[in-house]
Prior knowledge:
Elements (H helix, E strand, L loop, with lengths): L1 E6 L4 H17 L4 E6 L12 H9 L2 H16 L16 H13 L2 H15 L6 H10 L5 H7 L3 H14 L6 E4 L3 E4 L4 H14 L1
Parallel strand pairs: 1-2
Antiparallel strand pairs: 1-3, 3-4
Amino acid sequence: MNVEIFADVVCPWCYLGRARFRTAAEVFGGDAVVTWRPFQLDPGATGGGLTSELMADRFGGPAKVAEMHEQMRGLLAAENLPYEPEKAISANTRDAHRVIALAGEAGVQDAVVDRLFRAYHAEGRDLNDHGTLAELAAEAGLDGVAAMLAAGDGGTAVTEQIERARAMGVSGVPFFVFEGTWAVSGAQSAEVLEQALREVAAQV
């Protein structure tokens, strides 16, 4: 079964959704082939600075942001995922999405996505930096990233998929598309995602 997941690596709900989908796929036990698709929560982000400080301006101050972080920390802890949002560096994720697309061609997309999620949400790594992206990708089994980024390759494919998401009406992520037809929006529970897998499998 083909499953496309539209996501942004700076999105904590996508980080959570990734873990829940993994659990759902393991319980389902079928052959779910995942392809990660790009979505940018803030395509105009310039990158740099702590995400928490930028969020404070947007969401009503540091106390409100701390409350949001604690809620998410609890949800991610339930999935055994590390989360240190105070370390997160604001990033424009277009280049990260180019790396993820290249990883798909090389057959190591899941590993690269997992590494980028952890780097941003738990380690305070700067995903704006090409050297950092190349290092993280190499740790996940993907080489050639520095040259690809320097050459500007992969941007057109990312743009096309982002426009496709917009045409599909995707306004938030994670967004799961099964067999190009059925969709589930949001970081639903593993049980909901497992049921979606089973229902789609019965249709194809």
